[in-house]
Task: structure prediction
Amino acid sequence: MSEISINSVGDKAISAGEDSKLKISDLDIKNAYIGVTSKDSSFLEIDNLKIINSKIAILAYQRKLEYGPGTIKINNIILENNDENYLSQKNSKIFIDNKIVDHIEMDYNIF
Result:
């Protein structure tokens, strides 16, 4: 997928789940609860991402116990005016321009 613009989302703008793989280029998200997320053994790769005015910009976690952690890899990112830019549960991974973002302790039932 490429050249996507998403505005005013009450939940997740882009969500990879249950062992899926997504590759996206040129994604612009405004006013979402969660901008992009990868959960439950999924892999999300994005080139050129912009997220503005969202509650949580980027989230990686494990929701279902029968799956593993989520992984997100982003190259070239702009984040503006988000409540939380990155949330990554232990064992889940977020890479920004090939550098890993630290995880936080969080309950998998939180989302």
